[in-house]
Amino acid sequence: MTAPQSKASAATTHQVESGDTFWLIGKKHGVSVKSLMSTNKKSTPLLFVGEKLVIPQTITPAEKDLLARLVHAEAKGESYAGKVAVASVVLNRVDSKLFPNDIKSVIYQKDQGYYAFSPVQDGAINEPADAQSKEAVQEALAFRGMGNHSLYFYNPKTAKSTWITSREVTVRIGNHVFAK
User: Fold this and answer.
1) Which among 66, 63, 61, 62 has a CA at the least distance from the CA of 125?
2) Rounded to two decimals, what is the model's pTM?
């Protein structure tokens, strides 16, 4: 009798099924398409039914939850695309040399006595994430490294910093302006 597989080890491979794409697999597992293709030594998006892909673990479940809670607090009332963009900003910061290199450190980063994200300051980060925020995180993880590399976002109606408004705008989604 063999021991049952843990969730962590069960999620390390994915058997390709009809209709699967790297995008769908990446979104399902919360892994970037680039990382998925690289780990499996793929240079084209061609997949074969029955093929087994290794799913690299890029962030922990606790990091996903923290990121989803931030998205929920920062992007309440925003569109799904806006929620994905907020999660992408955090991931872009993790990947940037200008910021800490893990999700928790980016989210809890302080600059001149202020947290980078207001939900950390006001405690809204502690509220549970809704399903759409969790889904937005999965999509942002799949999209990681493929966007416009926004490092900041702000609401122009409430932003008090003139510095943030001097940044190069990458996209506007709902009430948020994204910039780098």
Assistant:
1) 66
2) 0.79
